[in-house]
Each structure stands twice: as C-alpha cells, then as structure tokens.
Amino acid sequence: MYAKNNQGITAEIDRLHKNTGVKRSTASNYIYNLRQMLRGELYQRAMSVEATDDFLAWIHRDYGADGLKSAVSALEKHIPYFKKSSPSPMTGHVAILKKYEVSLEANIENETAVIDLLERPAGNSAPDRAEKISFFIRRDPEIRKFVVKRSNGRCEFCGCEGFVLPDGSKYVEAHHVITLAKAGADTVDNVIALCANHHREAHFGADASKLEAALLDRLAEINKQSRSTA
Length: 230
Ligand SMILES: [Zn+2]
Ligand SMILES: [Zn+2]
Hints:
- The protein is built from eight helices and two strands; from the N terminus they run H-H-H-H-H-H-E-E-H-H.
- It is mostly helical.
- It folds into two domains: 108 residues, no CATH class; 89 residues, no CATH class.
- The site of one zinc ion has 6 residues, from strand 1 and helix 7.
C-alpha cells in the first residue's frame, strides 16, 4: 500500500539527501522505519527526534488520521525497544508521542454527528483495523456526543464546571483513557469527559499512569450507575 502512496515521503527523503547530505543508508533506514510506521509495527532503527516528528507530520498529511494512528502505535513500540539497548531516556521521542496522541484525539473531536442521542450507543469494542489493506479504526462521533452529554458540562473526574460556549453549552473534552494507538476501544467505557486541565494532565502529567488508573476506576463507577438507571 505504501509503494503506491508514499511518493510524497520518498520525495522528502530525496530532498533531505540533496539538501542536507544525509547518507543514502540513513535514507534507507528511514524507508524501513516508514514502512513499519505505516503498518503500525515496531521499527528498530534509530531515528532522531526531529526526523520522527517530521515523519509523523508527513504521514498525517499523506495518509490522514488512520495513517497517523498506525505511526503513533509504531512509535509506542519503538520507545521501549530502544530504551532496552541504550541508556537514553528517549524523552524527546516520548514528547513527540504525546503530541501526536493528542492530535489523534483532536481529529476525533472535530467530527460532528447529526443524530441527537437519547440512548447509550453500542460503540465499537473491537475497532476494525483491517479494512482493505490499510489500517484504520472506525471512530464513532456518537460516543463523543454521548459522553459530553453524560457529563452535564462537568469534568467527570474532579466535577468542576466548564466555561460557557457560544451555544450555551459548557466546555468539556472527551478523552480516550486507553489511547486509540494502544488499541483502546472507542466506547463509552473508555471515553471520559474531562476539564481541559485534567485532560492535559492525563497526557502530559508526571503521574499520568496513576491518573489513568484513577480515570478507569471513575469510568467503571459512572458506567455502573448509567446501566442501573437506564
Ligand atoms: Zn477536572
Ligand atoms: Zn485525551
């Protein structure tokens, strides 16, 4: 699939080689990494923070959100793999990973649904990643709508009320507790409405993994309640 579509990126590699004198062997490592990124699989060859950032941006541009999802998933596998063989803490790569996780979610939030929901949507607990040859995930804008409605304009974690939007509703952000790139489900059991502050902390906080566990507990509570009252 990449052979057909990656002219944009190979052209960038060519330009990189000509303009900066990057070796062809480096370029070929990059091509290997690119292939793995598009498959969402582990890539083993080292890549600088800057090149990783560029590649994810190019993939996003050329392959859209589905391509980016695969690339983020590949980077997620690359970081622990690389840490094993080098003393580097990979902080730059981790920062890139967080940045694109957020941009994946933002893509989902930009989707608008026309149907007003009164019922708990079924969602998609096993997102289909094998349509045609490319990897993709079915995103459900109804899930976001449902979660925003369920929150009643308050952070479902701390309870604080969002500011008022032009349409009179209150601002909250929908967060996938287990990220889509980690194969988290796009269902109401994995999506929580958060205030902007808690949302950023969930992605960038030093204690993000502790917060993740707390968010999952909170979601379990919320979903138990909504099931018993439905
Ligand atoms: Zn909050
Ligand atoms: Zn989020």
